[in-house]
Structure formats: C-alpha cells, structure tokens
Amino acid sequence: MSALEEKAKESSDNNGGFAILFFIIGLAASLIFGWVVFPKLLYSQKKQPFDFSHALHNGLVDNGCQSCHFFREDGSYAGVPKLAQCVDCHEDVQGETEDEAVFVNEYVKPGREVPWLVYSRQPDCVFFSHAAHVKSGGMDCKTCHGPIGESESLKPYEENRITGYSRDIWGKNIAGFKSHTWDRMKMDDCSECHVKNGVRQNSVQTEKGACFVCHK
Amino acid sequence: MSAKEQKKAKRFGMVIDLDKCTGCGACMVACMAENNVPFKKDESNKLDSITWMRVFKLTNGKEYPDADVCYLPRPCQHCEGHDGHSPCVSVCPATATDYSRETGIVSQIYTRCFGCRYCMAACPYHARYFNWWDPVWPKGMEKMLSPDVSVRMRGIVEKCSFCFHRYQRAMDKAHLEGRRELAENEYQTACTQACPAGAITFGDLNNPGHAVYKLKQSPNAFRLLERLGTNTKVYYVSEREWVRRAGDNYLAHEKTGQVAAAH
Amino acid sequence: MKIDRRSFLSLGVGAGAGIALSPLPWKLTDDLSIWTQMWPWTPVPKDGEIRYVNSVSTLCRCGCGIKVRKVDDRAVKIEGQEGYPGSDGSACALCMSGIQRLYSPTAIRMPLKNTGTKDAPLWQSVTWDAAIREISEKLGKLRKEGKPQALACISGSDKGTVPALFRRFLQAYGSPNFMSMPSYEDAYEMTLKLMHGTDSAVGFDLENADYVISFGSGILEGWGSSVRMFKAKSAWKDKKVKTVQVDTRLSNSAAKADLWLAVKPGSESLLALGMAAVIISEKLYDKKFADQYTFAFDSWKDAEGKEHRGFKEFILENYSLSYVARATGIEESQIVKIAKEFAGASAPIALCGRGQGNTPGSVHEFMAVHALNALAGNINQKGGVWAMPKDDYIQWDEAATDGIAEKGLETPRIDGAGTEKYPLSKSLPHRLAAIINAAEKSPVEVLLVSGANPLYSLPDSRAVKKAFGRIPFIVSFASHMDETSEMADMILPCPSHLERYEDVPTPAGMIRKVTGLARPVVRPQYNRKNAGDSLILIAKALGGSIAGSFPWAAYEECLEKTFGDKWKTLKETGYITEDFSPPYWDAAFATPSKKFAFMSEVCAGAEKKGGTGAAKPEGEENTFPLLLIPFDSMRLACGPVAPTPFMMKTVSDHMLKGKYTVVEIHPETAQKYGLKEGKNAVLSTPKGEAEVKVHLSRRTAPGIVAMPRGLGHSGPDEYISGKGSNFNELIAAVEDPVSGLDAAWGIRAKLVKA
User: Fold this and answer.
1) Is C80 among the domain residues?
2) Would residue C685 count as lying in a domain?
3) Which of B63, B84, C266, C505 could tie C159 with a disulfide, CB 3.0–4.6 Å?
4) CA atoms within 13 A of residue C706's CA, in its CB half-sphere
5) Would you state the pLDDT for residue A207?
6) Cβ-proximal residues to C359 (8 Å cutoff; 6+ apart), any chain
7) Element (H, E) at C8
8) DSSP classification of residue C139
C-alpha cells in the first residue's frame, strides 16, 4: 500500500461520519427548499380587485351557477360575467361592505370592466367546450371547479412566475397529487377522464384522444 | 374506436372546381384573416411566406396563343394515407401533428411543435410553413386577431386546419341544442365561404347527403400526386386534360384517372 | 472534525438527492416548457361575445356587401353578406381585408398641417377649429379676389352624397371645376348618350345572357362589380353559356373563357366591326330592330337632301373579312364562326372597357362593341344591355349662388370639359397636370381631394406630381396617408370605412337600382370627421349664400333628409333596391330620330377608312421597339385605396419580387434583347423609366411587355410602399378625339438589361 493510498484510507475512516452528516444536511436542506421554499418562490400572490361572495349571490339567484355563468345562443360560454350583468342589481351601492363600494365606485360608475383574475384560465392553445361537458356530458360545475359556489370570499390568486398561469391549474399540492377531481386542471387531468369514459379516442398518434379535441 | 363510432366517423374534405377558380385570391385572404396568419414586410419570397391556402398557377407550356393557365388552390390536403398514417403524422417526433379518425383532419398543435421541420420535408404538397421569425402586428392591428385560433410563434410549423375551430364552434351550438351531428352548412371552411366563384365545396366525404360525396365521383376528379398513396381529402375537378395531368407525374403513354390502388 | 472536499461533495450529493426527491425539477421542467411554448410577447387574442354587423365596404369601386365579425368591441373578420344585391355572400379580397385598414397605424388621427415643403412635408397636428379656420380664410380670400374659379375639386366618384356635397360646395362657392376620377363607366355613358340619346348608366343583364363576348373587359380582373362578375361567370359555366374573351394577353378572363381570341394589340374594336360586317353581309342581324328602331343603319338623306352613307354600307365597304383578319390576327373562319354564333344566340351580350376599366378608353371602341349588341337586337332586352336611369335619390334644392359665384361659374372649366373642344365630357382630370405645368401660374389655387388618389391613379403621375407641387394649397380629405395626402397642405381626416355612415350608389352594370349604406361597425377610434361634416363646417365658416346652401347641422342629418321616408328602411336593412324594367324600343331612345343611332362615322373612327377606333400608343417605334400594356389583378387594388398587407401576400412572385415589379415578356422577346428569367432590366417609355424584373411567359405575344397595375405605392407603410413601380408613371394619356377622355391602352417601350 503506498503512502498516498494509506492517507486516503485514513481520511475516509475519519471522515465517513461527516460525509453522511453532510449528506443528510444537504438532503434535508434541499428537501425543505424543494417542498417548502420553492413553491413560495414560484408563486406570487395577487389580490382580486375586490372580494366577492359566491355563497351570498348563489342564495339570491334562481338558476344556480348558470344564472350568471351562462351559455350564449351560439353555444359558447360567457364565463366570468360582464359588468353589464352585474349592473342590473348593483347600480348603486348596496350593503355596507367596503368591497361593494369599491365595485360601484371604481367599476360600475366609470363603466369599467372588472379585471378579474381567473383561477381556471388555460393557455391560449386550449379549446374547452363547456357545452360538450355540461350539456352533452351532463357534468356539473363542481367536478372541475370544485365547491367554489359555496365560497364566501375569493382566495388570493397565486400566479406562477414562470408561466403566468394560476396555481390552480397545477394544483395546490406542489407534488401534483390530487384528492378531488377539481384539484388540478392540467392536460393529463382532462385526458384521464376522457380515457376513462372513452371520449373521442381517435388519435392515430396516441390511440387516445386526438389533439384537435381540446386544442385549437 | 367502437363499431358505432366507426360508422359515424367523418372524413371532411374538399372538391375544388379548377375550371371555376379564377385565381382571385379571395380564399387566401379569407384564410389569413380567419386564422391569424402573420404577415411581414416582404412577402415576395414565397419560400418563407406563410399561406395556409395558396393558389398556384399552372401553365400548359404551349406557345402563344395556345398557352393556357389554370389556378390551383392548395390548402393542406389532409392526407389519410393508410389508416391515418399521413406523411407528416408518421414522421412527427413530438406528437405535434396528429390524424383524427373522427374527422379525418390532420391537426397541428403549435405549442407541442419544436420546429424540427421533419413534417415539412415529408409533405409532398408544401402545405406546411415554418415561422422563421416571431410574428409582428403593426401597433393596433393585433386588435384584429381572432381568439378562435392560437397565435403562433417563432420556431414552429403551421398549416391549414380545415378551419377546425369552426367545427368546434358549430359543435358547441349543437351540444347546447342537444345534438351530436352537424348539418352540412354548419361547418364550412373560411375559404369555401369566401370563394366568389363557388369553386370550393366542403363537406363530409363519407356522407352521401353532402355535395362533396357526389362531386368527387366525377370522371374529371383527381387528387394531387395520387400515386404516392397519400390518399388526400382534397379533390380537384377539371374538364381540361392537361390540368388533370398536371396533378401527378405521368409517362407519355399513361392516361389520367387510372390510379393504381394503394399498396 | 475536518471539513474537506468530501464533505462538500457529500453535501452536494445530499442536496442533489433531496432536490430529486422534491417536486422542484419536475415542476420546473413543466413550467419552463409551458413558458417556452408561449413567449410572453406572443399576443393572446381576447375572447368575448361574437356578433356580426352588416355594412357595405366602400374600398372597392363597386361596394361589396359585408358582414363584420366582432369579438366584443373588436372587429376581427370581414365576410360577404348574404343577400346583398350583386355581391351576395362574397366580398373581394380588398374588402375582405378591410380590417387591416381600420386598425392600421397609418390612419390619420387628427387634422394635419404641412409646415414643411411639398417635397419634404413636416406634419403638425392642429385642432379642428384651427384647420377649418385656416381653410375657410384661404377660400374667403380667393373669393374676395374675385377668382372663385381657382378652387378645384377632384373626387373619386361623381355619385353619392359626399361627391354631391363637394359639387354643391363648388357651385355655391362659384367654381365650375368639380372633377371626378374617370372610368369606363364614363365612356359607356357617352356611348349611350350618342347612340340612345339618353343620359343613362349602362346595365348588363348578365345572368340571363346566353352568349358573352368581352372585348378586353376583365370579367375576372375586377371589371364591373367584381363579385357579381365572378358569380355570373360560374353560372355561365354551369348553364354552358359560351364565353369569348378578346384580349392581347392571356388574362385570367381569357384563360377561363371558352375561347380566347388573341388579337393584335389595339385591334379589339376592329374585330367588333369585322364581326358586324359578317352579321350584316350574312343578314343575321335583328331585322325588326334594324328596320324600325334604328337610324342611319341604311343610307339616308338629310333635310338638305344630302346623301349620307349608312352603317351597313360603311361597314361592308371598309371592314372586309380579309382586312379585319389581317389587322386583328384572327383567322377569317374564326371571325365568321364567332359572328354567326353571336348573332344566332338568343341573348348575346358584348362587353367593353379594358381590364378593370380604370382608364375610360376610346368611345369609338365602345360604340363599335355596342353596335354588335344593337345588331343582335339585344338592347333593353332580357339578357342584354340596358340603358339604366341614373340614381336620383339626391333631390336637393339648387345651391344658392351670389354675384361672385355666378361670375366664377361662367368661366370655362380648367380641364376643358364641356367646352367647345370637348362638348360631351363632364370632367377630364387627366388634362389638369399638363395645363397647370404649362401655365405660368397654376390656374388652380386651392384643390380639394376626396375619395381619390390622383397622384397615384392619373396617367403620367410624375407630371401630376409636378403640377400638384405648383398648386398653392391642397386640402386632402383622407382617412389614411397616401401619395396625394403626402402632397397636401392640410389633411382633414375622415373616419375609416368601418367607422362612418355613407351611401353607396348603384354599382356599375347593375340592372336595378341598389343603394347601400355603409355604417359604423366599431366606435370611431379617433377625432375624425366625415368629409361631408368637414365641408359643412367650412361652408358655415364662409357664411353667406355658401352657408345657406348647407342647411344641415351635420352630414348624418343630410343623409337622413336626402333619403326621407326611405331612411328608416335603409338604416334597418342596409340597402334599398328598386327594380327596373327597361322600356321597349319604341320608347327607349331619345336621339333626334327617337331611334337607336348607329352613327357610323364616329363609330368606326373618323380619322380614316377602316380605322381601328383605338388610340395610338405614344412613342416612336425606332426608339421604343416594344409595346407596354398593363394588366389588372384582383390581388392588387388598382383604385385609390392601396392594397392591404394580406393582399400583398397573395401577389404572385411573377408580379412582384422584392422591390421590383415583374414584367411578362415572351421568350422570343427575351432572346432578342438578351434578357433572362428573373433578371433585372430597365423599362423605359417616353414618360419615364423603372427597373423591373423579367418573367418569361407565353401569355403575351412577342414584342409586348405586360406589366401589373396597382404596385409602386410610395406609402403608407412598409408592407405596401417601395414595392414595384407604378404603371401610371410610365404611361401617358392619349386623348380620345370624341370625348377627350383618356383612351390610352399602352405605350411604346424599351427594355434593356440592367
């Protein structure tokens, strides 16, 4: 055994424990970073222009979600209501909340559309037919959007700093695990349901759903 | 695909009457406006000029005054090949282009494409275009962009989609009305609608009730480079023999309209 | 304890393992891939509610009925409007790409005053008040000096309320110098005046015709109402109606016709007369019509007993088959065959006016072609040519004139129209440039330009530019910058065609009256005023009888009052139509004889026996061995409006390559002058020269250079400007001896390797 090798052996003997220690420190630190710090860094918190209670409004309308989120005659989905719809009731400040005052004074009176941050906003390449899912598929809103109709206030909008989309698309769980159907809104989630139900599995490439079903 | 679905499968396609086409370019403009096709300062280099629908000029090569020209509008031919294995779909390494057995439409998903241009090499019809530059709309003109079609970016390939978004929109309406089927006039491409000469007919080639079903059976109907086995869904009609001959490569003794069956 | 390199390695490995066990790499990869799929600068069009608004597009000459798709308040696409008379469900490429004009950054947003020179304009924005004040002061001064006739106006058209307001303004102001840009419609009007004796517009019952022969008319190049022509052409094919195209070059119309007669350049009318000779000698003409309802068909004696030769004898004597065959290059048998087919058809129709018809052409030629229709007895008949009453919905009281105005109105017109020399014509703007350039001081001191781009569209545009440079004050009423606005001293911006109300008069060649209404499709984007509104403001500022002649508060009120009880329908449906059935031959003609006048001498070209009737192209054959002829294309806008970026994309590289216009020459010509495909050459004519590229084509005969019209704009943006050369810079007007209208169809040219 040469001197050099002996030295090496000695050092490994002495420092074996340290190596493991450092390994564990590194592991722990990066695990904390990856699981706890990273999500905080990745998403910025944005506030909606003012708060809104779905629960309150749901109690006042006759037709559930579709009272405000309706289909247009051409089959397209109107999505977030326009100011004109709200103005029917909100011409003047009702109630006493500060949010109501903000709404009326900053948006209704000057006739400015509310720049809502839409949690479910998908990339431009996505085509989603509400009519196909709700009317023909008989799905309810909750399956994808969750119990948002029961919420009393709007949660902060967490915007992905890289992609610009809401955290709700990937899901709250940074690992991507979901416990409800509405926890995630990625392509895989659409595909999962389509495969399960055998919806339009006509692709030559994938033998699954063709691209021109959900894309444009 | 279940047997029932198979039966309902559509093969959307076109029949273009070349004797009616006047080469006016209305189809090209309608297509550009419908599909957010970008434009740049110099479009005279046709190799990098993106035109999903392009009207080619054919000449019979004869001497004045026996010379003749014919215009040939060329959208994506939406090749079916053998069971959907169209030239481009077969080679795409990114699953960015796909063939749907439900509609027979060859799709192109821009966000999926990484710009290898393999499909462009494979396409015998030059129907695919590469975005060498990011599209730029002069200030204010981005207001004319349609939300129905994704805007493309530098480094990807794009092509005619048979205005698939119009199918999606029409289906939306059908779903709302509790239908699953579309009437012939509910889904028409922008070029078909725009052609002032009525040269383009669009519909389901499988549906005997659609106009294209009959038109494609004309003895004067032909497809481009039919003998490659691309099995395209765009048919052309012309009473002129020289035009039909221009649709493929023929030996001197060969006649048109005698296409060998696919291998 | 010793921290060495290994510890760091361990730390690193641990960190690596930790990261790998955390969602970070997978999530980051996913996010990054999404980011690269859609760069932040790639525009994402906003979604919204889709609605359609009907209107009429005024970009092309005929006015296409359009349906504009809007997403919320944005206009995104223009399509044809179903049911609109003529264009029914389709629109031409220019009108379809009109949104690019609406949202173009070259739109003029506020009144602009040129504080620089005409060659190097320096635009300064001014308020509307200041602009109107300055113009009315200038105009007031001119009147004070007693020369109201020094005000002139060039309007794109002479139909509709806006041109009528300009004419009225000049009338009240005291100037006879209202000019409109000429087209083949003017030549037809004159033809009808001479042969029918009526003041009418030409109508063609194309849909019911069963044989069509076109003498150079670009049925598929934008002649008439382009979309209606396309539809008619397809219907003819379905009904197996034979179409014959007489053209020197294999135009698209010729290629699509059942038969192309490749005549020698300029011999179109000769062929018509040759056909007439065959029809007469074979006695195939409509005898009832010829015998009872025509004048001067046979020889006749006037009141003084002087013998006049009739059309019949004149034609038979001067247009022998062999002569016509030699002169036109069409075989005798072919001429006989076509003549027989034409006369034998039950509703044959012969059309005239070259290309898109932007140059009026020779009245002789029109009369020769119209004589064919008369021989076939297909005048005012189903499937024939009709004399249509002109639109008469503008019924305003006569403009009030004061002493100054009356004096000014008595002066002869600057362009000579209506004077002794040109008694038949109403306006001759192509003569203006030469007159101004020859004068010591420009006789026009203030020029108003509306709906026209004379600096681009008039022949010999270099001379026009020089002339405009000598006009002290030019006011341009325009929505976008163009060649003419660039030379203006003041620009009064108009809303774009999708932001304003305007009436659209009956398009050319229709057989019923159609009045369309262009309406605001989107909210006006800028502080602009309709030309009518600007004019009303100027009139009010001038006061007196001029203000009195403009009793309306605004243009919209003028429109509303003009249409009276029809306004409501017009506004609701977007157009009103009025069917017309033409009077029978006994009541159709208002010539002195109350019959159809063949007018043989005028018809055949008075200058010599066997004349062609066509204008002689300018230039010496020795210096300019070739003949340059223009051709029109639907892919290029050849009118006052520049093509859109989308249209430029459709232009073939056989018409434009880089910054060069591509001209077509026969391979034989190329060989003779040492020119090669795709190579540059210098094209020169007596009027100017241009560097072009050469395309060898057998569509043109040897000795001909064919050049596309509609290129070579100097503005308004990088998508249009500096591309190719303007044909009008190379051609000179050739005056028609009968009308004074421009009858040029070509010019002698030289092509030399660059």
Assistant:
1) no
2) yes
3) C505
4) 24
5) 86
6) C182, C183, C184, C459, C742, C743, C744, C745
7) helix C5-21
8) H
Q: Find residue A126's DSSP bridge partners.
A: A215
Structural domains of chain B, ranges and CATH numbers in brackets: 3-246 (3.30.70.20)
The answer to whether the beta carbons of residues A64 and C53 sit under 8 Å apart is: no
- CA separation (Å) from C135 to B99, C488, C492, C708? 65, 12, 10, 38
DSSP C233-289: HHHHHHHT-EEEEEESS--HHHHHSSEEEEPPTT-HHHHHHHHHHHHHHTT-S-HHH
Structural domain including C638 reads 626-753
Confidence of residue B1 (pLDDT cuts 50, 70, 90): very low
Q: Which residues in chain A are contacts of C10 at CB distance < 8 A? A: 18-23, 26
Sign of CA dihedral B44, B47, B52, B56: positive
Strand partners, C735: C742
A26, A38, A74 ranked by CB distance to C12: nearest: A26
DSSP secondary structure letters along B66-123 = S--EEEEEE------TBTTB-HHHHH-TTS-EEEBTTT-PEEE-TTT-----HHHHH-
H or E segment and range at residue C305: none
Closest alpha carbon to B135 in B40, B48, B46, B53: B40
Distance in angstroms (rounded) separating the CA atoms of residues C449 and C154? 5
Query: Residues of A numbered 111-170 whose beta carbons fall under 8 angstroms of chain C's beta carbons: which are they?
Result: 123-125, 160, 162-165, 170
The answer to whether the bond into B65 is cis (omega within 30° of 0) is yes
Q: What's the CATH code of the domain at C693?
A: 2.40.40.20
Q: Tell me whether residues B98 and A124 touch, CB distance under 8 A.
A: no
Residue C63 lies in a domain: no
CA gap C140, C154 in Å, rounded:
20
> In angstroms, what separates the C-alpha of C519 from chain B's closest C-alpha?
19
Q: Give yes or no for a contact between C182 and C428, defined as CB atoms under 8 angstroms apart.
A: yes
pLDDT digits (tens, 9 = 90+) for C347-395: 999 999 999 999 999 999 999 999 999 999 999 999 999 999 999 999 9
- C293 and C413 co-located in one domain: no
Question: Does C735 share its domain with C654?
Answer: yes
Question: C587 and C567 in one domain?
Answer: no
Residue A38 and residue C24 in contact, taking contact as beta carbons nearer than 8 Å: yes
Q: Tell me the HSE value of C27 on the side-chain side, using a 13 A CA sphere.
A: 26
Mean pLDDT of the region A16-20: 76
Q: Is residue C187 part of a domain?
A: no
Tell me: do C263 and C355 sit in the same domain: yes
Compute φ and ψ for B148, nearest 5 degrees: -75, -20
Structural tokens at position B213: 């079903």
In this structure, are C423 and C474 located in the same domain? yes
pTM of the model: 0.94
Residue B172: list chain A partners with CB under 8 A: 74-76, 129, 131-132
Across B144-172, average pLDDT: 96
pLDDT recorded at residue C319: 93
Residues B140, C593: Cα–Cα separation, whole Å: 62
Task: Collect all residues from B whose CB is shorter than 8 A from any CB in A.
Answer: 1-2, 5, 9, 83-85, 89, 92, 95-103, 105, 107, 109-112, 148-151, 161, 164-165, 168-169, 171-178, 180
Q: How many CB pairs under 8 A join A and C?
A: 113
Indicate left, alpha or beta for C202 from its phi (over 0: left) and psi (-120 to 50: alpha). Answer: beta
- Encode pLDDT of C103-146 as tens digits: 999 999 999 999 999 989 999 999 999 999 999 999 999 999 99
Q: List the chains bordering chain B where 3 or more Cβ pairs fall under 8 Å.
A: A, C
Please, how many CA atoms are within 13 Å of residue C307, restricted to the half-sphere of its CB? 4
Q: How many domains does chain C have?
A: 4
Rg (CA), chain B: 19
Q: Which of C96, C652, C307 is nearest to B191 (CA)?
A: C96
